[in-house]
Amino acid sequence: MRVNYQILLKQNLQDLNPIFIGESECPPGYEGFANVNGNCCVLYRIHRGCGKVRIQNITYPVKAGQFFFIPVGEQGPMTADKEKPWFFQWIGFTGTLAHDFLQLPPVFDVPRSITDQMYDLRTPCENLASRITSDLFLLHATLTKSKPDRTDHVQQVVDHITTSYMHKFSVAEFAKELGINACHLSRLFTKKMGRSIQDYLLTVRIFNSKLYLNKGYSVKEAALMCGFNDANNFTKLFKKKTGYTPTQWKSKLALNEDNVPPYPQRPTFSQMVSFEQTDKDREPLVYHRKKKESCQTECE
User: Cβ distance 273 to 203 under 8 Å?
Assistant: First the structure.
């Protein structure tokens, strides 16, 4: 049996913390256990083939395109089909939100629009741990959240950005999913929230990038983990929001200056705005040369 297994960079995240990932191509009729470790939850994605898995004393058939979840303490005996043995990938993780996956059926489907965004181990990835983390949050936000008030479109935008800020976001596409006009959605949001959807998204992304910088991640890593594909554009937007470049921010942390505050793990948006204003009120670092900035968000 071909197995590819990797232990991920230690992140010590509280909500959803991936520990290891792997993939297996099973021979016909192969028998094994889905959760040998037993100390964490394991999420499986079947890419091709089929088989059976036993979860909480019930045996379930599983086919290509489906997922199944093994909770802590369950071993999950599994058997590959003799004619069409399966190829699957898995994520082992812990965290306070891991229990929410128990809301789902033991074997479940995930919309194609979501799986198309998820990482495939067969593709090289520079920041694997952060990529897998964002996939877990995407699945959690999509599959386990309580049913929102379908008439409160603004809250739906807020909920989506809060949990999926690290992914590409299009106002037009999200409005289409809600079944309303994109301009109308933008007007509703601005009227209720006092700022545009793009600025709301940017505020959430920049705040979370500061959390990653505080933990020691590089500027490029923080940018990628918060939805910025271009580190240079991230630097411009960070400077616009905080008065500092990300590198200057990290320098202040290294100096352990008192005016760099500790940030809460799961802040409200009002807290993010408060810290944003505090950043702007600080005395800026001296630049050798000032450049005219032209900042364009990556919301679209």
Answer: yes
Among left, alpha and beta (phi > 0; psi -120 to 50; other), residue 227 is left
Of residues 60, 156, 41, the one with CA closest to residue 100: 41
Which amino acid appears at position 15 of this protein? Answer: D
Which tens digits make up the pLDDT trace of 214-267? 878 889 988 988 889 899 999 999 998 888 899 988 887 655 544 444 444 455
Residues in the chain: 300
Say what the pTM is.
0.55
Domains defined for the chain, CATH in brackets: 2-115 (2.60.120.10), 147-300 (1.10.10.60)
Which DSSP string do the residues of 51-114 spell out, in sequence order? EEEEETTEEEEEETTEEEEE-TT---EEEE-SSS--EEEEEEEESTTGGGGGGS-SEEE--HHH
3-state secondary structure of 251: helix
Q: What is the pLDDT of residues 51-67, one digit of tens each?
A: 999 988 889 999 999 99
pLDDT computed for residue 253 by the predictor: 64
